[in-house]
Design a protein that fits this description.
Layout (H helix, E strand, L loop, with lengths): L1 E6 L3 H13 L4 E7 L3 H8 L7 E2 L2 H7 L2 E4 L6 H10 L3 E4 L10 H9 L3 E2 L8 H7 L4 E10 L22 E7 H7 L5 H9 L7 E6 L6 E9 L2 E9 L10 H14 L1
Parallel strand pairs: 1-2, 1-4, 2-3, 4-5, 5-6, 7-9
Antiparallel strand pairs: 7-10, 8-9, 10-11
Helix pairs in contact: 1-9, 4-5, 7-8
């Protein structure tokens, strides 16, 4: 029986917990929860049987075999590193926090631990990995999101996104800068970077329009193999417009794979 600890009890953490309760009770048990918002943690804990403890990050890692991060890119690398020190596996949803901490993956291999990265809200990562056996010349991501899914991002630089009336390019640059400017909106850029040619070489455009109803991610990869293009049209999750439903599903698929 795999003991699971979940850090972050919002939309994604709750979705993961509910799936484990419904579909994986014979293989896994949620033993601990952690969230900066104690009320969120308490609400989720009351849905789980047997009831997990609500505790801090260090104690949660100690109690768990697999640590699931669904909190924030500000702490995701710290969580992965703490898990490694305790020789525990981790599943990281906020991949933006890892783009400057790629050495953690080598450290995980040397310690016999795993840092799992779900595919998130995009398709095509299997092709990107395969292309990486040869030379990859370019990776480009174009993300289109409704304005409410981008509200509050540092990269808006004081813009009133609700006043945007037509299709507008908000960002055009590297994945590294995209993750810094839109930390809660563009984990897909970080995931592409980690699986491909890195955050400085991966190019990203972020576009918004009040006419958009879905989170759309277009990935274009060129290399020695040739060229491929994918387009993923995601419905936002019911609980958080900044999160695509497929991102939650990708975490569940990864859990089924590793447990």
């Amino acid at each position: 029986m795999k003991k699971i600890g979940i850090i972050g009890c919002g939309t994604i953490g709750t979705g993961i917990a509910e799936f484990i309760q419904r579909k994986m009770r014979s293989k896994a048990r949620i033993v601990a929860l952690c969230d900066a918002d104690k009320i969120k943690a308490k609400v989720l804990a009351e849905k789980i049987r047997p009831r997990p403890v609500i505790t801090n990050i260090d104690t949660l890692i100690k109690k768990s075999d697999l640590v699931i991060e669904a909190a924030s890119g500000k702490i995701s690398a710290k969580i992965a590193e703490k898990a490694l020190l305790k020789k525990k596996d981790s599943l990281i949803m906020s991949t933006g926090g890892l783009i400057k901490k790629t050495a953690l993956f080598k450290k995980a291999n040397s310690r016999g631990s795993n840092i799992y990265i779900p595919s998130g809200a995009i398709c095509g990562l299997d092709g990107l990995k395969a292309a990486g056996i040869g030379k990859i010349k370019a990776v480009r991501l174009t993300t289109r999101k409704p304005p409410k899914g981008l509200k509050g991002a540092p990269g808006l630089k004081g813009k009133d996104i609700e006043k945007i009336k037509k299709e507008t390019v908000l960002y055009n640059g590297t994945a590294e800068d995209a993750v810094r400017s839109f930390p809660k909106n563009i984990n897909v850029a970080a995931t592409l970077s980690l699986m491909g040619i890195g955050p400085k070489k991966t190019r990203v455009r972020i576009i918004t329009s009040p006419r958009y109803k879905r989170n759309i991610h277009e990935v274009e990869v060129e290399g020695e193999f040739g060229k491929f293009f994918t387009r993923t049209e995601n419905l936002p999750s019911r609980g958080n417009p900044k999160t695509s439903q497929l991102a939650i599903y990708s975490a569940l698929a990864k859990l089924k794979e590793v447990i």
